[in-house]
Amino acid sequence: MDYDYILCFSSRIFNILYAAGLPVVRLNFFVTDEDVNHLLRLGFSRLRHRFPVTSFALEIAGKSEAELVDYLKEHYGDYFV
């Protein structure tokens, strides 16, 4: 699978991937303007694949970590690995 970066929301996972020399970017679980600016500096675009954060937050609310991983893989497989 080709990819430029791995996006993660967990410091623990970030540290593991970073130590392995993988191109990983750590973001806050609730993405901030600072996170967006960091992604823009890395060459990400604001215009593609955007969806309302409120609806996404409602979709994932209350899920355990395992449920969240399964849900993201199933519904957002193009965004997460």
Describe this structure in words.
The protein is mainly alpha-helical. The protein has one domain (6-75). It contains four helices and two strands. The chain has helices spanning 11-19, 33-41, 53-60, 65-75; strands at 6-8, 24-26. The chain has a two-stranded parallel sheet. 1% of the residues are buried. The model has no long low-confidence stretch (mean pLDDT 88).
Topology readout:
Blueprint: E1 6-8, H1 11-19, E2 24-26, H2 33-41, H3 53-60, H4 65-75
Parallel strand pairs: 1-2
Tell me how many strands there are. 2
Distance between the termini: 9 Å
Shape: globular
Strand content: 5-15%
Features:
single chain; 81 residues; mainly alpha; two-stranded parallel ribbon; 4 helices; globular
Give a quick rundown of the structure.
The chain is mainly α and 81 residues long.
